[in-house]
Amino acid sequence: MAAKQRFALLGSGFIGQVHAQNLAMHPDTELVMVADSDPSRAAAVAQRYGAKCAEVSAAINSDTIDAVLIASSTPSHAELLLTAARAGKAIYCEKPIDLSLTRARQVVAQVLPLSVPVTVGFNRRFDASHQQLKQHLQRGDIGGAELIQMVCRSSEMPPLSYLQASGGQMRDQAIHFFDLLRWLTADEVTVVGAMGSALAQPEISAFGDVDTSVLIMQMASGALAQLDNTRRTGYGYDERISVLGARGLAESGSQSPQGVTLWQGNQQRRPGLWPDWFSRVKESYYLHLDAFVRQLNGELTADLPGLLDGLQAQAIAEAAVQSLAEKRFCTVEQITG
Amino acid sequence: MAAKQRFALLGSGFIGQVHAQNLAMHPDTELVMVADSDPSRAAAVAQRYGAKCAEVSAAINSDTIDAVLIASSTPSHAELLLTAARAGKAIYCEKPIDLSLTRARQVVAQVLPLSVPVTVGFNRRFDASHQQLKQHLQRGDIGGAELIQMVCRSSEMPPLSYLQASGGQMRDQAIHFFDLLRWLTADEVTVVGAMGSALAQPEISAFGDVDTSVLIMQMASGALAQLDNTRRTGYGYDERISVLGARGLAESGSQSPQGVTLWQGNQQRRPGLWPDWFSRVKESYYLHLDAFVRQLNGELTADLPGLLDGLQAQAIAEAAVQSLAEKRFCTVEQITG
Amino acid sequence: MAAKQRFALLGSGFIGQVHAQNLAMHPDTELVMVADSDPSRAAAVAQRYGAKCAEVSAAINSDTIDAVLIASSTPSHAELLLTAARAGKAIYCEKPIDLSLTRARQVVAQVLPLSVPVTVGFNRRFDASHQQLKQHLQRGDIGGAELIQMVCRSSEMPPLSYLQASGGQMRDQAIHFFDLLRWLTADEVTVVGAMGSALAQPEISAFGDVDTSVLIMQMASGALAQLDNTRRTGYGYDERISVLGARGLAESGSQSPQGVTLWQGNQQRRPGLWPDWFSRVKESYYLHLDAFVRQLNGELTADLPGLLDGLQAQAIAEAAVQSLAEKRFCTVEQITG
Amino acid sequence: MAAKQRFALLGSGFIGQVHAQNLAMHPDTELVMVADSDPSRAAAVAQRYGAKCAEVSAAINSDTIDAVLIASSTPSHAELLLTAARAGKAIYCEKPIDLSLTRARQVVAQVLPLSVPVTVGFNRRFDASHQQLKQHLQRGDIGGAELIQMVCRSSEMPPLSYLQASGGQMRDQAIHFFDLLRWLTADEVTVVGAMGSALAQPEISAFGDVDTSVLIMQMASGALAQLDNTRRTGYGYDERISVLGARGLAESGSQSPQGVTLWQGNQQRRPGLWPDWFSRVKESYYLHLDAFVRQLNGELTADLPGLLDGLQAQAIAEAAVQSLAEKRFCTVEQITG
């Protein structure tokens, strides 16, 4: 049996607490320290799981930890990533590396030579259904991918303050699907066309954001992809990916909780979708952590999203931002130079 | 190309009109005459399809017809069946042969030696989905049948006058499923247990009828079957058959018209079931006619329900009636002697 | 009861024969004449339905007909349309008016002042599910349309000869959905972005066609739309439209024939989609004809696709063709001038 | 915040370990002691959750525990129940109280006057979908229950040794559904008819057991119910309950894990059912425990299955056993005297 990986959690807000619970629950990890810019929040989380509360730099440099989980606010990711890499720790870093692709590249360039294990928080790769979809593609069950359709629809507008700091719908919401698209197809996006509107909350156009958008993408292989995003549906959280191949269609579809069907008159009423993104995707955080830990323990696990994946998904997002702004197709190469 | 089979339609009420349209539409049949105890009704139907109006006996004995379709009121079936058989006509006879099993047996005993082609109106055998189900069973796709579950639920109570003349829920409604059960499994029912209540319309218990019933049946092979019947659902017409075999389940399930799905809040609303029995089963009348015509034209068609099938389904119905009345399991052998 | 509308059918190929059967079946129409550049084909169809065979111009100008149904080859549409309009006949004209938008406009300009009833063959508006979808939108059941997703996927590549004469995927296949989009939303497309590849049959790129394409569209209201097209799936014919509104999603989804579900091991297997486009859409031809006849008989029927609808859908197709060719977003205004 | 309820777990086999994990996970319970006839098994479970290992009687009588969870082998339930009740502990007792209904009644008669909180392990009442079904019935959403259909199908034959000690399919498997039927309808079963066969494993008929059975039941209200049971499907674990009321149908249906749909040729393939009973029902153990703890903490929770529920479900099972053996309808009154 492998020794437990001892983690420091950096950042104990909403998503940090999700990670705290997973670190406490996983048989091969131990939550040793919790650090947060708000010490009282760190203390509360630490106490709940029997961990210690620590200063960020003390946590990173402690001999009693093997790995850090960076779940702090986005602007601090890059610095913490670099510090932890220099301290030789294994790193699970929430996405994005930095909202500035330039800054992200600089940090990645410094971190890569240090050769520490790093995974970037594209947890949706670990959705159990998306994993099955990937297996069908890898086994060639439907032939080569020709047309990929992706739906990313959140149930409710986030607070305005969140949106203002988010980098916009492409960098904050769609980015997960840019990564999924690359991962599922083992192919690269070359051209992006995007259109968007602020329909659910028109005032966000004041800072250049949209809440509803449609994208088309050309892949290097000639395959074509679609993505639509909305920040607010009236019907729960809807995440779907279907891939049309030369010999059929494979679909990781909308998901609903179990429940009762009512048949009355000329209608049947069934449970709708999961009410929000978190209820749908929460299990994938655990599965991502599990894959990372198995990697650290020397078990072979393919497809862990790494630093270069982080940069590439961001590059596609930048191309999409440019396409939205300039109302033209944009190549990713333009961004990656 | 085969010559057209020239039909006389005997009885032009609701179901007779269904047959009239099918006879007019089928490329290999010709509706030549229509007879009815109500001549004005016969005349209207005849005119609509370019047929002649005739007396019943004249129609049966005319040289210009090859076949009769008996769709008159139940008490006249037996006599018309016998007359038409003696006239050497091919016969499609609506079920039942006669409400009295004794009378039905007498007529069948007289008709069989005449060797005319006869099919009895168990049209549901020709439901396209039930046919697929039968194929799966015949091919052994799910292994031997072990547990058959059947649901037969009409959407609305028929008029009281209909019910009073119907012979009761077992002889009128459930009888189709007794036939389907024998046909699908190629097995015979040996014991029946039935419970029933008049829940939707309590006054029908005055003449000994029920509108809701549940049945269990033992088959000669040891397989077990269930059937439930209701005369009135609040959700359309529901007909379902599933067969559990040693290697899986095959299900000819509830059917709905196409339509729109609405996703709102925490619900999805889809089209419900067909509104009534006729919208669900109407195509099977045509398919049954087609199979009969192909048989007359010398094409091999298996599984046409014949006179002995009619008697056997009635025997099961009688055992069910007895079980309901005497509150005990009843053997079919008791009935068939 | 209204007098029957007497039709001449112009063109008796595959789709002409579909119309012939509908004209014969409809209680308020009469198929009087059939004309075709191949007289033997016309004769066969005429005989089957008890109609006369005629020269095209004789048919159009005959006093014994009230209406013409133009189902001849595309290049002849415009001329026949004009001739029939000048003869004062009501006209059901298969789409497109002409592959050349310029020519189409010229003819429409001449036909409109003649004030004869004309409908253009956008039969998919009469799909029963799409009609329900439209009703939900009109009643405001899901609030204003914000994001429309359309899927148009044929099961098999048409013959190369067909493709070469078709005008390409935008003008031939996608055009139905440009019309559906305008009709469903009562909104206009302003900008189109399209990407396409010849993946199923690479040789069609020799004449500039694609078999797989993805499109995004901006609507005048700010709403956004997506469409994907393929000429060949490995899973039957897939046509779907969903509309996300401010208060939910309404979906006219993929359609399958009825059949059996098999549950075995860890899988359920259900019937797939309709095998080809015709089995899915054939009913809509009848319903379109029916709506046109009711309009001729003075019954109010909204939403019959007219000449201007034909031009507008073609304009969107031209913008899409331009976007594909020039790899940029194109406005429809550029086309319509 | 309520004090934690301190539990002793009596019995640490498969189901005891399920309870151990739930007791460790629940925020308001504490797993203090584990006792088992096999001390090494108790020790292993105790260690995993930081509990102590104890003798059974010491555990029951310890001042440091408030409640016991009886998950030992069936023959020991009655004695432990009585001992714990005399010690004044709250009790969660796995079903059945005793395989002998006579013995079960004797113990219940002794325990009831002691007025300790007791719940009997009918955990399926706490299935989230069945709970929704109950709410629909209580609110009258579908009117009064008229026809209840229940399906209870396990995926794989248990070991022969298990079956020999189980009391047979009625007492071991169907009993959960006798309880669910009473709970959902708030009605009592009056008459039972049952047929059964040993089809999956014929040798179990040597000790009078069946693996496939169908039952019909009359309720005091006149409502009718059906149940089918099998020990081995070829398609996973299938548990379903539907209730037909005067105004529609409510269905807590078959449940499948999430996954990918493959559309190929003329088929769609979807995930099948949960592979076994435990994956389907495991959550209900936690929810049952949670309801019990909330009751202990003075929060109102209705519908906790109690000792009398245990006796009544067993009485129905005895009537079913009698019906199977004697091939006649049996009243429950005959059993309850």
UniProtKB/TrEMBL annotation, chains A, B, C, D:
Belongs to the Gfo/Idh/MocA family. Pfam families: GFO_IDH_MocA (PF01408), GFO_IDH_MocA_C3 (PF22725). GO terms for cellular component: cytoplasm. It comes from Winslowiella iniecta. GO terms for molecular function: nucleotide binding; oxidoreductase activity. It comes from the Bacteria. Keywords: Oxidoreductase. This is Oxidoreductase. Residues 130-249 form the GFO/IDH/MocA-like oxidoreductase domain. Residues 6-122 form the Gfo/Idh/MocA-like oxidoreductase N-terminal domain. Gene3D superfamilies: Dihydrodipicolinate Reductase, domain 2, NAD(P)-binding Rossmann-like Domain.
